[in-house]
Design brief:
It comes from Bradyrhizobium niftali. This is RlpA-like protein double-psi beta-barrel domain-containing protein. The protein has about 160 residues and is an alpha+beta fold. It folds into 2 domains: about 30 residues; about 130 residues, RlpA-like domain (Barwin-like endoglucanases), CATH 2.40.40. About 25% of the residues lie in helices and about 30% in strands. A 6-stranded mixed barrel has the order 1-5-2-4-3-6. It is globular.
């Protein structure tokens, strides 16, 4: 009985330590503009919208992204227009997701490009809910115009806001 209680307490402590380290890594994942600008490719300019396949009435996508990951509204992620797939390293099932710098309304964020889609005309990227809230906290805009998206070279970026 004592062993089971000790194991349960140990498990709880490990879970707490992991959640604290994940929270810290997300906060420390803020990149400087100079580093991101140096690593960025040529910008694509267009409109961005939000997608969430789990919200009622949404016809876009499904629960799994093009990379094979499950859609997660709480991470920094996005879907790029299908005909831009090659420019962003060929997002495809089973391949490592690619990364991009998204700039709009005076803010910058690094997102994981893990999905593609036949977005509506004029739109170049669909942001997941967390990323869209970064640019539009109330989600009232629906579409953000003049968004600049630049592919980032390399596979090991930490998604999140750029300071």
């Amino acid at each position: 009985m004592l062993f089971r209680s000790s194991a349960a307490i140990c498990g709880a402590l490990v879970a707490l330590a992991v959640s604290v380290s994940v929270a810290r890594s997300e906060v420390s994942g803020v990149h400087s503009s100079a580093v991101v600008d140096a690593a960025s490719g040529e910008a694509i300019v267009g409109a961005a919208s939000m997608y969430n396949p789990f919200k009622p009435g949404k016809e876009e996508g499904g629960p799994n992204t093009a990379s094979g990951e499950r859609y997660d509204p709480s991470v920094w992620a996005a879907a790029i227009k299908t005909n831009l797939r090659r420019k962003f390293g060929g997002v495809q099932f089973g391949a490592r997701p690619k990364y991009a710098l998204v700039e709009a309304v005076g803010k910058k964020v690094i997102v994981k490009i893990n999905d593609v889609g036949p977005l509506r005309p004029g739109r170049i990227i669909d942001l997941n809910e967390r990323t869209m809230r970064h640019f539009d906290p109330s989600l009232e805009l629906g579409v953000i115009d003049d968004v600049r998206v630049r592919p980032l070279s390399g596979d090991y970026w930490i998604p999140g806001p750029v300071g």
